[in-house]
Specification:
3 helices, about 280 residues, eight-stranded mixed sheet, four-stranded antiparallel sheet
C-alpha cells in the first residue's frame, strides 16, 4: 500500500493566506518548508488577515529569494512591489487566532500596496529571528505564522475519494490547491493514509504526526480568482469526514523531527502507524 508512495507536489506559502510557490526541490527546517508562512498580512491592530474574510489575499503572488532577503509581490491590477526584507527593526504585537506573537513590520510602502490591493488598511509583518512558537498536537514542533503545525500533508487518493463523493452530490471536482497543502503524496492507494502515518521519512527529512487538519471556509474559495464558490467541499466533507470534536477534517499536520532536503519524486516511507483520530 505504501511501497510506491512518492512526493508529487511541494508548495510553500511565503505570505500567510496568499498564493503558494510550487517547487521541485525544498529544504525542510524546524518550521517546515523554507520561507513557509514567514510573513503575515495584518490589520492596523495587528490581527492577521485571512481568506476567510479577505479572499483577495489569494490573488497576491509572492516571490522570495532563496536567502529570504528580498520579497516581490504581484497582484492583478497593481504594479509589482519589491522590498528588502527587514529583520532588525522594532518588534510589534500581532495576533493569530487570538494568540499573541511578535512581528517585524515591513514598512509603509508595502502597507500601502496591500491596502490598495485588498481594499482595507493592511500591514505586512515578518516572523522575527527569535520566534519561539511551540505548536500543539501529538508531536510538538514549531512553525512560522501557519495556522498550527509546520507541514500539511495530503494524498491524491484522499482527493480522489472526495471527488467521488462530490460527483454523487452532482458537484464538480476541485483542484488540490483548495486545500493548500505543503506536501502532496501520490501512491497511497488507501484514501486518508496520512491520517494513520505517525512517523514518515521523506528525502533527508523525518516528520512526526501532530493532528488532523480541520478545514474552514478557505476551501470554498477559488484560489485562481479569489471568488467564493458556495458550500463545497465543506458540505460534502461534513457527510463523511466530521470530527468528533467538531468541524470536518481533510489531510494531516506534521511536525519536523529531522530537517533535510526533499524533492518531487522522492519516496515517502511510513516508519510507524497508528489508528486514525476522529
Amino acid at each position: 500500500m505504501t511501497g510506491g508512495a512518492t512526493v508529487a507536489e511541494l508548495t510553500y506559502y511565503p505570505l500567510k493566506g496568499c498564493a503558494g510557490v510550487s517547487v521541485r526541490v525544498a529544504e525542510i527546517g524546524p518550521a517546515g518548508l523554507a520561507h513557509d508562512r514567514s510573513f503575515m498580512v495584518t490589520g492596523p491592530d495587528g490581527v492577521f488577515r485571512s481568506q476567510r474574510r479577505d479572499p483577495g489575499l489569494a490573488l497576491i503572488r509572492p516571490e522570495i529569494t532563496s536567502d529570504g532577503g528580498h520579497l516581490t509581490l504581484r497582484a492583478p491590477g497593481a504594479g509589482p512591489l519589491s522590498l528588502e526584507v527587514d529583520t532588525t527593526s522594532a518588534r510589534r504585537d500581532v495576533q493569530l487566532f487570538k494568540t499573541a506573537y511578535r512581528g517585524i513590520d515591513q514598512g509603509d510602502a508595502v502597507a500601502g500596496w496591500l491596502t490598495e490591493v485588498l481594499g482595507v488598511p493592511s500591514r505586512l509583518v515578518r516572523v522575527p529571528p527569535e520566534h519561539d512558537r511551540v505548536t500543539d498536537g501529538r508531536t510538538p514542533g514549531t512553525s512560522g505564522y501557519a495556522d498550527s503545525c509546520a507541514l500539511h500533508v495530503l494524498s491524491r487518493s484522499s482527493l480522489e475519494l472526495l471527488h467521488t463523493h462530490l460527483a454523487e452530490q452532482g458537484a464538480a471536482p476541485l483542484p488540490m490547491d483548495r486545500f493548500r497543502p505543503n506536501i502532496v503524496v501520490d501512491g497511497w492507494d488507501a484514501p486518508h493514509t496520512e491520517d494513520r502515518a505517525r512517523r514518515i521519512t521523506v528525502g533527508d527529512a523525518e516528520l512526526g504526526y501532530a493532528k488532523l487538519a480541520v478545514r474552514c471556509a478557505v476551501t470554498t474559495i477559488e484560489q485562481d480568482s479569489g471568488a467564493r464558490t458556495g458550500p463545497e467541499p465543506l458540505r460534502t466533507l461534513a457527510r463523511y469526514r466530521r470530527a468528533a470534536a467538531g468541524g470536518v477534517v481533510f489531510g494531516a499536520k506534521f511536525a519536523v523531527l529531522r530537517p533535510g532536503k526533499l524533492s518531487v519524486g522522492d519516496g515517502v516511507a511510513v516508519r510507524a502507524w497508528g489508528e486514525p483520530e476522529r
